[in-house]
Design a protein that fits this description.
Length: 196
């Protein structure tokens, strides 16, 4: 979608995505310098060298900017998690453990990093919010490997029961970090209890 909105000192931004990226980078810089709560739309506008009105042309307000950043980081996290499904195609319990561990320990890039919004960035971030969008992405990620696991072992684990547990475990281990070895021991203990 093309736009002819003025940018900074008369420069033009030719498309909506570019304008949004510039504002999101400015927001990241402000959040890094002042914190999320203290940052205002005025701060973001000043950093991006635009007016407040221009910011509001692209975003409804600070919550909308935060949602956009969360979405970008969440996409990056699940891109990394999808790579794990390729590493463990026939070992669903191990895949599940690795995914939970990865989500729990995923690190956000430096907030002032220029490549924070770069789709090809290998930096880590954590967009973890246990909401419907996140659960939908967990279901998409785990559905096929779980289906193969169920067929291989002639069992029926329901994805709709599994995903909320996976999301909560990732969040718990993020809030209460532990060593990787201890995490895997705990996961294997749960797995063994489930077999009894």
């Amino acid at each position: 979608m093309k736009t002819n909105k003025r940018w900074g000192h008369g420069a033009r931004v030719d498309d909506l995505d570019t304008g949004k990226k510039i504002l999101l980078k400015a927001a990241i810089q402000c959040f890094n310098n002042k914190g999320v709560r203290a940052t205002t739309i005025e701060d973001i506008a000043r950093t991006a060298n635009v007016t407040r009105r221009t910011v509001y042309r692209y975003f409804a307000g600070k919550p909308d900017i935060l949602d956009a950043l969360l979405h970008i980081e969440r996409e990056r996290l699940f891109r990394h998690l999808n790579q794990l499904t390729e590493i463990y195609p026939n070992d669903f319990p191990r895949l599940l453990e690795e995914c939970i561990w990865f989500a729990a320990t995923y690190r956000r890039p430096q907030m002032d990093s220029e490549d924070h919004l770069d789709d090809d960035s290998s930096e880590d971030s954590l967009p973890y919010v246990n909401d419907e969008e996140c659960e939908a992405q967990w279901r998409e990620l785990l559905a096929e490997p779980l289906q193969r696991h169920n067929a291989r072992h002639d069992i029926h684990i329901d994805i709709h029961h599994l995903v909320p547990i996976v999301g909560r475990l990732a969040l718990i281990y993020r809030q209460y970090p532990t060593e990787k070895r201890e995490f895997f021991s705990a996961m294997r203990a749960l797995h063994l209890c489930g077999k009894q």
